[in-house]
From TrEMBL:
Pathway the protein acts in: Amino-sugar metabolism; 1,6-anhydro-N-acetylmuramate degradation; Cell wall biogenesis; peptidoglycan recycling
GO molecular function ontology, one term from the record: kinase activity
Reaction(s) catalysed by this chain's protein: 1,6-anhydro-N-acetyl-beta-muramate + ATP + H2O = N-acetyl-D-muramate 6-phosphate + ADP + H(+)
Species for this entry: Streptomyces similanensis
Keywords: ATP-binding, Carbohydrate metabolism, Kinase, Nucleotide-binding, Transferase
CDD domains named among the record's database cross-references: ASKHA_NBD_ANMK
Similarity remark: Belongs to the anhydro-N-acetylmuramic acid kinase family.
Source domain of life: Bacteria
Name the UniProt record assigns to this protein: Anhydro-N-acetylmuramic acid kinase
EC number: 2.7.1.170
Amino acid sequence: MRVIGLMSGTSYDAIEAAAAELRLDGDELVMTVLGARSLPWPRETRDGIAAVLPPAATTVEAVCRLDTLIGRAFADAAGQAVRTLCSGAADLVVSHGQTVHHWVEDGTVRGTLQLGRPAWIAEATGLPVVSDLRSRDVAAGGQGAPLVSAVDTLLLRGRPGVAAALNLGGIANVTVVPRTADPVAFDTGPANALLDAAVRHFSGGARHYDEDGRGAAAGRVDAALLALLLDEPYYRRPAPKTTGKELFHLPYLLDALAARPVLELADMLATLTRLTAVTVADACRAHRVTELVVSGGGARNPVLLRAIGAELPGVRVLTSDAVGLPADAKEALAFAVLGFLTVHGLPATVPSCTGARHASLLGSLTPGAAPPRLPPPAAVAPTRLRIVPAAAR
Ligand SMILES: Nc1ncnc2c1ncn2[C@@H]1O[C@H](COP(=O)(O)OP(=O)(O)O)[C@@H](O)[C@H]1O
Ligand SMILES: [Mg+2]
C-alpha cells in the first residue's frame, strides 16, 4: 500500500510530506521510503497559526478560518506528494494536522487539538484520509503523545544495549527501547521552541531560527540563567509526560530573562542550546540509554548535536538517516505507518509509552472519491519495522 504521511510540528516551520510503500510480512512491517518534501506554509496560514498559539487569545472565527487554511495547505501538500513521490498513484493519506493546543492539567492530558480539516485533502486527492490520530489515546487515558513511540519501538526493538529515538522538533521527545523491559516515551522539554522564540523576538522577526547553531557557537552559557531555567518543575515530573508551547513560549523565556538578564543574543542561544542538551541527557541517563537515534530539524544543528554528545560520553549518537529514515521526514513517515496500522485494524499505541489504559485503534477516516473499502483486518500484529531501500525492492 502506498501511503502519504503529512506532518507539521509545533515549530510550524513547514509541512513535511513523505511517501512510503508499506506491507505486512508475517510479524514484520516492511517499509520502502519513496521520498519526502518539505513544503513552506503560505504566509497567511503561517501568520494565522502564530496568532492563535498560546498564550494568545483567539476567536472561534479565527479557528474556523485557520482550520480551512491549514486543510487546504495540507491538501496541496498531499496532491504534490501523490504526483511527485508516488507517480500519481497512492492509496491513503495520513494527516497529523497542526497542533494548536495540547491541554495538560497536573500531568493529565484532557484534550489535544489539531487543525486542518481532512475533507480538503480527500476532495483534492480523491483518496481516503486518516486524521485526528491523537484523540483516541487521550480518551483511553493516555497523553496522546509521543505517538511516534509505537513506530520507534518497532524500529529499535532488538538493537544492542538500550536504544532510544530522540526527535528534536519544537519540543524534544524520546522513546527508550530496552532489550527486555517495556519501552517508555515522553517529552523531555523544549528542543527548538525557546531557541526559535529568542531568535524571532530579538531579530524583530527577521530570522526564525539559529541556523546551524551559529549564534550559540559564538556565545557563552550563562550559568545563572541555565540554573533558573532548569528549575522548571516539568523536568522533575515522572513519565509518561508531554508538554508543548502552552508552557515553553516567548513570555516564559522573557520572564526568565527578566529574573536573570542576559544582554547578548548569542549568550542566550548558547544557554538555551545547553538547556536542551542537559534535559535530553538527563532523560537518557535516567534510562541508561547507550544509543541515541536523532531526528527532526534539530538534527541539522551541529552545535546542538555536539552539546548532546558532550553531555553523554560513551553514548553512540547517530541521526535516523543511518537507520534508513531521513531525519526531516521521520515523523511524517511515522504517521504514515500509524494510519496504515489503523486501516489494517491494528492498534497503534504502546500503553507503557503514552500512559493509556490500553493500546488503541487510532484516528478518524474520511472517505475519498470511492466508497470506503478497508483491507481485511491483519491476522498478526507486526513486532518489527524493516526498512528496505527503494533499489532493493
Ligand atoms: N540548519 C539548522 N540549524 C539549526 N536549527 C535548525 C536547522 N534546520 C532546522 N532547524 C530547527 O528545527 C526546527 C524545525 O524542526 P521540526 O522537526 O520541523 O520541528 P516541528 O516538528 O516542531 O515542526 C526549526 O524551527 C529550527 O529551530
Ligand atoms: Mg516542522
